[in-house]
From TrEMBL:
<comment type="subunit">
    <text>Homotetramer.</text>
</comment>
<keyword id="KW-0418">Kinase</keyword>
<dbReference type="GO" id="GO:0006183">
    <property type="term" value="P:GTP biosynthetic process"/>
</dbReference>
<dbReference type="GO" id="GO:0046872">
    <property type="term" value="F:metal ion binding"/>
</dbReference>
<feature type="binding site">
    <location>
        <position position="87"/>
    </location>
    <ligand>
        <name>ATP</name>
    </ligand>
</feature>
<dbReference type="GO" id="GO:0005737">
    <property type="term" value="C:cytoplasm"/>
</dbReference>
<comment type="function">
    <text>Major role in the synthesis of nucleoside triphosphates other than ATP. The ATP gamma phosphate is transferred to the NDP beta phosphate via a ping-pong mechanism, using a phosphorylated active-site intermediate.</text>
</comment>
<dbReference type="Pfam" id="PF00334">
    <property type="entry name" value="NDK"/>
</dbReference>
<keyword id="KW-0547">Nucleotide-binding</keyword>
<feature type="binding site">
    <location>
        <position position="114"/>
    </location>
    <ligand>
        <name>ATP</name>
    </ligand>
</feature>
<keyword id="KW-0597">Phosphoprotein</keyword>
<dbReference type="GO" id="GO:0006241">
    <property type="term" value="P:CTP biosynthetic process"/>
</dbReference>
<dbReference type="GO" id="GO:0004550">
    <property type="term" value="F:nucleoside diphosphate kinase activity"/>
</dbReference>
<feature type="domain" description="Nucleoside diphosphate kinase-like">
    <location>
        <begin position="3"/>
        <end position="140"/>
    </location>
</feature>
<feature type="binding site">
    <location>
        <position position="11"/>
    </location>
    <ligand>
        <name>ATP</name>
    </ligand>
</feature>
<dbReference type="GO" id="GO:0006228">
    <property type="term" value="P:UTP biosynthetic process"/>
</dbReference>
<protein>
    <recommendedName>
        <fullName>Nucleoside diphosphate kinase</fullName>
        <ecNumber>2.7.4.6</ecNumber>
    </recommendedName>
</protein>
Length: 140
C-alpha cells in the first residue's frame, strides 16, 4: 500500500509540559514520518476555523480557548495508511478510555487537554494540511 498523509497537532497541554519530542517519538515509532512541522501560536480565528465542524457542540468555546492558550506544533505525517495509523497511536478522545501504549493514555490530562489532534479521514487530512501548510513547506 502506498504512503499517505495525515495532519497532527501537538496541543498546548503537551507543549507546556515539554512533550513535543516524546509525542513525536511515539508517532515515529508507530511508523509515521514527520514531513512538515512548525510551532505556532494559533489565533482565535484560526482555531475557530479549524474546529468549525464542532461549532455547535457545547464544548466549542472552551476548546477554542484551550487551543489558543499556548503554542502548538502542527505537523504533516506520512506513512502507510497514515490516518488510521495516527488515530491508533493517539488513542481514544477521553484518556480514561485510551488503550495502553497510546499517546493519550501516556500523556493526556483530560478529555479536552488530550495532547494531540489527528485527522479522521483522508479527505479531512487534505483540508487540514492545506489549512496550515503551503505545498513547498512539505518535504517528504
Ligand atoms: P478527536 O480529537 O479524538 O477526533 P473530536 O470528537 O473530534 O475528538 O473532538 C475534538 C476535540 O474536542 C477533542 O480532541 C478534545 O480536545 C475536545 N473534546 C471532545 N469532546 C469533548 C468533551 O466532551 N468535552 C470537552 N472537550 C471535548
Ligand atoms: Mg476529531
Amino acid at each position: 500500500m502506498a504512503a499517505t498523509r495525515t495532519f497532527s497537532i501537538i496541543k498546548p497541554d503537551a507543549t507546556r509540559r515539554n512533550l513535543t519530542g516524546a509525542v513525536t517519538k511515539m508517532l515515529e515509532e508507530a511508523g509515521l514520518r514527520v514531513v512538515a512541522s512548525k510551532r505556532i501560536q494559533m489565533s482565535r480565528e484560526q482555531a475557530e476555523g479549524f474546529y468549525a465542524v464542532h461549532s455547535e457542540r457545547p464544548f466549542f468555546g472552551d476548546l477554542v480557548d484551550f487551543m489558543i492558550g499556548g503554542p502548538v506544533v502542527v505537523q504533516v505525517l506520512e506513512g502507510e495508511d497514515a490516518v488510521k495509523r495516527n488515530r491508533d497511536v493517539m488513542g481514544a478522545t477521553n484518556p480514561s478510555d485510551a488503550a495502553e501504549g497510546t499517546i493519550r493514555k501516556a500523556y493526556a490530562e483530560s478529555i479536552e487537554a488530550n495532547s494531540v489532534h489527528g485527522s479522521d479521514s483522508d479527505e479531512n487530512a487534505k483540508i487540514e494540511i492545506d489549512f496550515f501548510f503551503k505545498p513547498e513547506e512539505i518535504v517528504g
